[in-house]
Amino acid sequence: MDIEVAAGSPEGATIVVAVADPPEPLPAAAVGLADLLASHDVSSDRGTARLVRLGDRRVVATGLGPRAELEPDAIRDAAAAALRVLGDTVGGDAAWLLDESLPLPVAEQIRAAIEGAVLGSYDPGAWKTSGSRRRPIPRLTVVGSSANAPDAERAAVVAAWTNRSRDLSNAPANELTPASFADRAAELADRFDTVTCEVLEPDEMERRGMGALLGVGMGSHNPPRLIALRHEPREAARPELVLGLVGKGITFDTGGVALKPATYMEEMRGDMSGGAAVVAATGAIAELGLPVRTLTVVAAAENVMGGGSFRPGDVLTASNGKTIEITNTDAEGRLVLADALVYARDQGATHIVDLATLTGAMSRALGDLYAGVFANDDDWRAEVVAAGEASGDHAWPWPMHPRYRRFIESDFADLKNHSIRSQGIPVYAAEFLRVFAGEGPWAHIDIAGPAFLTWSRGDYLWQRGGTGYGVRLLTELASRLASR
Ligand code: BES
Ligand code: MN
Ligand code: ZN
Prior knowledge:
This protein is α/β, with parallel strands linked by helices. Helices cover 33% and strands 22% of the residues.
């Protein structure tokens, strides 16, 4: 879908009018439509949409809910609903009318409308041989006298990379192996002058002592990869700052020897969604030319049961020399992240954010909307949470405290990877990661809830599977770092 801005709606495009409660005033560009809309019983209920004919024009009226409570997600929902109705019926170009009377800055309306349209039009059925039944919408024009092309361009770039992240998350594990994940990252680097890609294979991991990543990955016929992308802008706004983006890249998580139940296990192809998000965010940062030095590290491995698998009771040595007693092979994410965090710090990352589908307990706690954020630095956590909230990737702060360390103290090694007590699971997982995060600000985002949907969320991210969570948050964070 091409995205454009214009002062008036193009000939032939279906006009999309977002109606709040109360509906008046309508957007300037919709003057004359008011009576006609009223005669069609259009609803202002949030997320509803209806296609009507007004003379020789088609109009989709979509609901925003209460005007006084308007938030960006209401615009996202409305845009997604409108384009869904259009795609289900006649298809063709669409024109979204901006509304300066709404209590939301126009720049935010533009961003939300484009994200809602692009993310809401995502087709997860890439593996269907029959193609999509939906009618194409080749172009979306954002219409208003104050419509700003750079705002729209930026939102379009970020939304497109978010959908690429979803493609990676949804890709089956027989297609997206650690090696092919690395190939996708290398292809991304080829597209941008500022980006380079480096891939470590098992022999190199061995030399660097990455025993935790190797321990998880070597049970599979698809051996692990450590993927590093570097974005080095020609002129960095803060040359001393290197943003480290670290992602959990488990291409499939069976639980290993501690085998998971079969029901919904297919969803564990999405256990690389943190890795997908950091790679796709790097694409967005590069395409937008953000002047922030970025080092992206993905620990890619497949956690399966096989003759070479690690087992409960094994002791693995991570690349910072710490020994880890394995008490549960299903707590594999923190193991691969351990070596990835050490590598990111080693390679010069000054400010780190990691994203991981780390604990089922986080998804039970916060559900499918919010991710939980942990950090070793209050300011850094606040910046990450603020970037999330501003971007539509909802994030909520969680506590860390050294007292949780007792959950991962081992009688045999420096620490263990899992506690038999089912208390505070997301928190002690974060305490585990802290040991490997080194000096300097680090934040951990547990995205187990919002990254990959078992059931539709019923909003603009209505598709099951990957949501691309984190691409918008990280791009927002990078642009804030560049401008402060
Ligand atoms: N990938 C899972 C976490 C997960 C579960 C993400 C469900 C998304 C949906 C992770 O590797 C895992 O298995 N975690 C265990 C941790 C436990 C053994 C401490 C879990 O959540 O049960
Ligand atoms: Mn697991
Ligand atoms: Zn996992």
